[in-house]
Automatic annotation (TrEMBL):
UniProt GO BP: ribosomal small subunit assembly
Biased composition (Low complexity): 75-100
PANTHER family: GTPASE ERA, GTPASE ERA, MITOCHONDRIAL
Organism annotation: Streptomyces fructofermentans
SUPFAM superfamilies: P-loop containing nucleoside triphosphate hydrolases
TM segment ranges: 587-609, 621-642
Domain G: 225-340
CC per GO annotation: cytosol
MF (Gene Ontology): GTP binding; ribosomal small subunit binding; rRNA binding
The keyword Membrane is annotated on this UniProt entry: yes
The entry's keywords: Membrane, Transmembrane, Transmembrane helix
Keyword Membrane among record annotations: yes
Protein name: G domain-containing protein
Xref: Gene3D superfamilies: P-loop containing nucleotide triphosphate hydrolases (3.40.50.300)
Length: 702
């Protein structure tokens, strides 16, 4: 007969107290205490707990001998030489081989002993202990026992050897230089953008950074692959076929798989499975096979619930685990391989993860003739329409295979593809890189600009001109020029003309010569001009920027415009009004002296004529008249010459006053509006540079 052996094992985790296996062990120990001599032939099981099934072709014979020597004493007392239980042998991996029950063919042969029934106990021939697999036994924390057979045929126990309880050394995952640079750039990008973008926009990028950091701290020698599929696609059956043992429940009841189940082909994956949130009772080992261990060493396979399950919590578990695994095997069947839910919700959004994607067409045994190839070709066409690159002709991309988990067709090819995939130890890094690509694609509308961003010199000059116009820089310059000329006329003009102008100013009414606009109207107009200048420069700076950054630029300009009109008014008072009298040119004293001389000549000539008329002086009209004519003609001539001479200095003085006020207004506008806008543009350029690094491009524009 063939003995079936079941050994349980929780990956890197022993059973918890209170489990059913623990209660079974307690009952076995009680039976051992009641049956003398049983410990040597029936060692207790380890405190492990994974269900691994193995068939042994050679059954162990049960040593039995009756009191009369005919081997038929089934009711012998304990200790009389007849064994009450069939012997068990346990190999180093904890696999127990159970002999056939007494009364079978092996038991009958053993009971007929060679001594003709002299009543002496004969030991049955025990089967050889199975050899350990390559790389040693499973490091599951089991206490292995062996039963060896002596030269005389007697069974003698081998001393117990405890397995090494130290946890296996786990090598953390290491990212290459380009991926580390992209992750650093993404972290800097998120940090610079938090004050400008909402948390919902940056949530996915933040999650990717957290998952990348968490995955980097875990084992780099293991690859976590999830098996996902729709209801009835046979993914659990495929999971069992790869494991070589019935681990995941299959059946017609839907949904069959209600929680993720993990199967690890090597030790050290406990922390990876903990990250997936899979409890110890749902962790399994595959069928112990040296060939399978060597081929799939480092693989952690996870069977997921149906992604289209009627239970909402099942779909939530699928979405959660798919975001954490290194690769995915999508299992489809000939009936639902074109399901819109699969393609629109999963395959199309994850098109950038083609290098860590397997698409397996299961149940091809149901397709007759060439129908399997036709369905497979149509599946490839749909994947291409989804934007998924296919790994054909040596190109990187998704692996598409056709298998039958029921008949075993294509399972070997899938095992080989998984073996090469896991042996590369690069799936985790490729998954993180694909996640970064997906995050960058989603953030493209947030950071991509349509044209060169920034303020041109023309825009800056136009803003300064608008502020100068609002503050009245031109009018202030003209007023300063008139003031300089007026001062020159007062100094160089004739006294008679100045007296006439003074009298005219006092006698003429002011109505009709003053502006009818009030000061309030002028202030309102100036404020409107300032606001218009700010809006214009903000629109110019935000042109071509993404929406969030354009809004940030406009908000910075609006904040700076608050109180700008009042500040410009104060500047106009300080810079527009010159302190004291205008400066005098070097020729001004000579002109004043000449004008005084002309006045003196007029006075002297007039007094001389008056003296002659009164009779004080002798009559002589020629000299006094000549003096008066020279004074009367020379005074206006000097004044006219001074007017011509002051045009240049007065113009320069007015321009200087206008320049001072224009520079003051421009400086105020630059400090309050242009500098904050430039700071926002600089921040955007920095963010843009980091985004270009996240995209993996060496240099960028914008």
């Amino acid at each position: 007969m063939t003995a079936v052996t079941a050994v349980t094992d929780h990956t890197d985790q022993a059973d918890r107290p209170g489990d059913d296996d623990g209660r079974d062990d307690a009952r076995v120990r009680e039976e051992d205490d009641r049956v003398p001599g049983r410990d040597s032939a029936h060692p207790r099981d380890g405190d492990d707990g994974h269900a691994r099934v193995r068939a042994d072709g050679d059954a162990a014979a049960s040593p039995e001998e009756g009191a009369s020597g005919d081997g038929g004493a089934a009711g012998a007392r304990p200790g009389s030489g007849a064994a009450t239980d069939p012997p068990h042998t346990t190999d180093a991996a904890g696999v127990t081989d159970t002999a056939d029950s007494p009364g079978g063919e092996g038991a009958a042969d053993a009971g007929r002993g060679t001594d003709g029934g002299n009543g002496g106990p004969e030991a049955a021939q025990a089967p050889e202990a199975p050899e350990e697999s390559e790389g040693g036994a499973w490091d599951d924390g089991l206490i292995a026992r062996r039963v060896a057979v002596g030269a005389e045929g007697h069974v003698r126990p081998v001393p117990e050897t405890a397995a090494d309880d130290r946890p296996p050394v786990v090598t953390p995952l290491a990212y290459d230089g380009p991926l580390r640079s992209r992750l650093d750039a993404l972290r800097e990008l998120v940090g610079l953008s938090r004050a400008r973008l909402d948390n919902r926009t940056l949530a996915e990028a933040g999650r990717i950074l957290e998952e990348a950091a968490a995955r980097r701290r875990l084992s780099g020698q293991h690859t976590v692959v999830a098996i996902a599929g729709a209801t009835g696609s046979g993914k659990s059956q495929l999971f069992n076929a790869l494991a070589g043992v019935a681990i995941s429940e299959t059946g017609v009841r839907r949904p069959t798989t209600s929680a993720p189940i993990a199967c690890s082909w090597s030790d050290g994956a406990a922390t990876l499975i903990d990250r997936l949130g899979i409890p110890g009772r749902l962790r399994r080992r595959p069928l112990q096979s040296p060939e399978a261990e060597a081929q799939l060493r480092g693989l952690v396979l996870v069977d997921l619930p149906d992604h289209d399950s009627a239970a909402v919590q099942h779909r939530a578990q699928v979405d959660r685990v798919l975001a954490l695994v290194d690769a995915v095997i999508w299992v489809v069947d000939p009936e639902k391989y074109a399901d819109a839910v699969l393609h629109e919700r999963y395959l199309r959004p994850m098109a950038g993860h083609a290098e860590v994607t397997f698409v397996v067409l299961n149940q091809v045994d149901r397709l007759p003739g060439e129908a399997a190839h036709q369905v497979l070709d149509d599946l490839r066409r749909l994947l291409d329409e989804d934007g998924i690159a296919l790994g054909e002709y040596g190109e990187p991309g998704a692996t598409v295979l056709a298998v039958s988990a029921l008949s075993g067709d294509g399972i070997g090819e899938l095992r080989e593809a998984l073996g090469h995939f896991v042996a590369e130890r690069g799936a985790a890094a490729r998954r993180i890189s694909a996640d970064v690509d997906a995050a960058a694609a989603r953030l493209w509308p947030v950071y991509a600009n349509q044209r060169q961003a920034g303020l041109t010199e023309e825009a800056r000059d136009e803003f300064a001109d608008r502020l100068a116009e609002a503050v009245g820089a031109s009018a202030a310059g003209e007023a300063a020029e008139r003031e300089w000329r007026r001062h020159a006329n007062r100094a160089c003009g004739t006294p008679w003309l100045r007296l006439w102008r003074w009298c005219q100013d006092r006698c003429d009414p002011p109505t009709g010569r003053m502006s009818v606009r009030s000061q309030a109207d002028e202030e309102a107009t100036a404020r409107q001009r300032v606001e218009q200048a700010v809006r214009t420069v903000a629109d110019e700076a935000a042109a071509g920027l993404p929406g969030a950054w354009a809004q940030a630029v406009r908000e910075a300009a609006v904040r700076g415009a608050q109180g700008l009109s009042e500040a410009l008014d104060e500047l106009a008072v300080r810079a527009g009004t010159p302190a004291g009298r205008p400066p005098r040119p070097g020729w001004w004293p000579a002109a004043v002296l000449a004008q005084a001389s002309m006045t003196i000549l007029q006075v002297v000539g007039g007094l001389w004529l008056l003296g002659q008329i009164v009779g004080v002086l002798s009559p002589n009209l020629g000299v006094p008249v000549l003096l008066m004519v020279i004074g009367i003609v020379g005074g206006p001539a000097v004044e006219w010459a001074c007017r011509m001479a002051v045009r240049g200095p007065a113009r320069r003085y007015g321009l200087e006053a206008e320049r001072r006020l224009r520079e003051a207004a421009s400086g105020c506008g630059r400090a309050r509006v242009l500098d904050p806008v430039a700071a926002e543009l600089l921040r955007y350029r920095e963010v843009r540079e980091q985004y270009v690094r996240v995209m993996g491009v060496g240099a960028g524009t914008g």
